[in-house]
Design a protein that fits this description.
By secondary structure, this protein is α/β, with parallel strands linked by helices. It folds into two domains: 7-21 and 69-110 and 157-232, 3-Layer(aba) Sandwich (Rossmann fold), CATH 3.40.50.1220; 31-65 and 116-149, SIR2/SIRT2 'Small Domain'. Strands 3-2-1-7-8-9 form a six-stranded parallel β-sheet, sandwiched between helices. It has a three-stranded antiparallel β-sheet with strand order 5-4-6. It has helices at residues 15-18, 31-34, 37-40, 43-48, 50-63, 71-82, 97-100, 159-168, 187-193, 220-232; strands spanning 7-12, 86-91, 106-108, 111-118, 124-126, 145-149, 171-175, 197-202, 214-217. It starts with 6 loop residues before the first strand and ends with a helix. The chain binds ligand BJW.
Length: 234
């Protein structure tokens, strides 16, 4: 690993929030064992059965009130405060635990549970309430709000900014993600094309673990604070 990185891109996935009590997607007992992905995480599933999809996200949004950030979220917030170089924190997670852990600059490439997207006027607006009761859009009043999350077949947010950061970073770190979903799963190769060092911090080897120059396996709540200590010099 680069001893003193100047520009770091961090990608987080569901594993970083697992120790906070939020289910991952693909682990045993994860969300995709309880729900069909094509029913709840595709535009086609939403068109077929909006009540099912709105209810699925209403439950997950409400559950955020019962969970708290863990040591891994807090360590990344400390890194944001104390690292003197460039840092981009990209999360695939739709929860708000990075923000509640103290990170001020988080790029949610797969959207956010606490945001609504109006299918009529296209506005994205902070949203903390249910949607299955079809509330009106605060801007155009149409009852056409959907969760502001990125489903399969949709374009993730801010890809230009992410690719620009990957092309200039000297360290890419992937935390708590299975490497099963693109384009995020390809970031390690994008970073390597830019000659960056690449580090995986995950409970177990991810699907793309062989692409990383270094991989450490264990719970994020232990690995991430240790790594942040190393970067900041103890
Ligand atoms: C711990 C831990 C602990 C546990 N400590 N670790 C064929 C080939 C290639 C690509 C495609 C293809 N067919 C279709 C595609 C594209 C498709 C795709 O990737 N499909 C795959 C199934 C193959 N992708 C898309 O459609 C995306 N859009 C797109 O590609 O647009 C075109 C484009 C073109 C060019 C450039 C850019 C774009 C959109 C993907 C949207 C994904 N949406 C979801 C739902 C979001 C809303 C919601 O939350 O409900 O995003 S799916 C779900 O998976 C969610 C997650 O963000 C995402 C990734 O999951 P994640 O975070 O990795 O979780 P898990 O559960 O998989 O893994 C958890 C990991 O943590 C595990 O490894 C554990 O071991 C570990 N862990 N506890 C540390 N304590």
């Amino acid at each position: 690993m680069t001893d003193q990185p100047k520009s770091i891109v961090i990608l987080t996935g569901a594993g970083i929030s697992a120790e906070s009590g939020i289910d991952t997607f693909r682990d045993a007992g994860g969300l995709w064992e309880k729900h069909q992905v094509e029913d709840v995480a595709t535009p086609e599933g939403f068109a077929r059965d909006p009540d099912l999809v709105l209810g699925f996200y209403d439950l997950r949004r409400a559950a955020l009130g019962k969970v708290h950030p863990n040591e891994a979220h807090r360590a990344l917030a400390r890194l944001e405060r104390e690292f003197p170089g460039e840092l981009l924190l990209v999360t695939q997670n739709v929860d708000d635990l990075h923000e509640r852990g103290g990170s001020d600059r988080v790029l949610h490439m797969h959207g956010e549970l606490k945001s609504a997207l109006c299918q009529s006027c296209g506005i994205r607006t902070p949203w903390d309430a249910a949607m299955s009761n079809r509330p009106p859009c605060p801007v155009c009043q149409a009852p056409t709000l959907r969760p502001d999350v990125v489903w399969f077949g949709e374009m993730p947010y801010q890809m230009e900014r992410i690719y620009a950061a990957l092309s200039q970073c000297d360290l890419f770190v992937s935390i708590g993600t299975s490497g099963a979903v693109y384009p995020a799963a390809g970031f390690v190769q994008d970073a390597r094309a830019a000659r960056a060092a690449t580090l995986e911090l995950n409970l177990e080897p991810s699907e793309g673990t062989h692409h990383f120059t270094e991989a450490r396996h264990g719970p994020a709540g232990e690995l991430v604070p240790q790594w942040v200590d190393e970067v900041l010099g103890g």
